[in-house]
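Case study 2.
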Amino acid sequence: MPSETLALPVLVQTVKEFEKLVLDLNGQTRIAVDTESNSLHAYRERVCLIQFSTPETDYILDPFAFDNLDALAPIFANPRIEKIFHALEYDVICLRRDYGFEFCNLFDTMQAGRILGRKLAGLDRLLEDKFGVKVNKRFQKADWAVRPLSRDLLLYARLDTHYLIPLRDLLKAELEAKGLWPLAQEDFRMGCAPNGSKPRVESPYWTRFSARRDLTLRDLTVLNELAAFREQMAAQLDRPTFKVLSDDRLIAIAKAKPVSAEDLQNVGLTSRQMQYWGTQILSAVKRGMEGPPVQRIPPQRPDDAYIKRLDKLKKWRKKVAEEMDVESDVVLPRSLLLALAERGPDDFTKIMQHSPWRMARFGSQILKVLRG
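Prediction:
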């Protein structure tokens, strides 16, 4: 594996090591960042590792070793330090959620690759193309919350940041050569905005399945009780809901409406599931059968003007994307697309104010489409 030829990463698990890390990062103008979370292994995911690379050193920070990481907040918010991520959206959401960090001056190597027309802009593909590095994906689904961290996991995790600084330089040079650097800067600035911080609206469990036409209202009522039970069990066991019972299994139970252990066995429950949860599942089914049926709420249909604008914008965006040889959302991100379709030409300048490159390049075309 390529990481075996590199110096070992510095594992940060003590206050003294953390202070040295913060001092080093504060003295940099560019740092590479990545995170590892445990979404596949826990009920509520959390950041389990934060990787940093400078031109000289790879660090792996164990956040479990510290009461807080407040000393990192000024680094992420510092406009003089560029933070380089690959596919920054998820990492930024996780870091903002767990630690309240705010962000300024970001570079996303995946988005840079997409703007350059790369249909396959994953880090493994970019590292192989640019540096001849082949990444072994066998730890992709590892449980990063497990301690102690093995040497192999540390070596794997460090590859996510070790090459990001030189990769950033190569991609920026390509963007500048093609006149696309201002477009990339727009998208990186958008990545700093707290788009993922809107309050979560809790809906009844059954609404996740309400679009399925093979489920009756009674099926959905039973399914709601089963999903509530699954949520409770997942929280108690601290594991993802799909590792308690899959959606397909819940739907099968809701349709069959079992009343006995034999019925449960017929819908595919394992003997272990029967032993642990059989009685509770049957009770959930019973509550769903006896309670008032849920009522589907008819979806609100957007007005005709919105639908027409959205359709025309999508067709225009697809055509331009084909001409530029990029994905459609590179031409016009979904957030701008929907805002323009909803609010029309009257708010055009306000909607596009943070995207001056797109405004200059496509503004007249977009207005023509909106005024169609």
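The CA atoms of residues 171 and 277 lie 53 Å apart.
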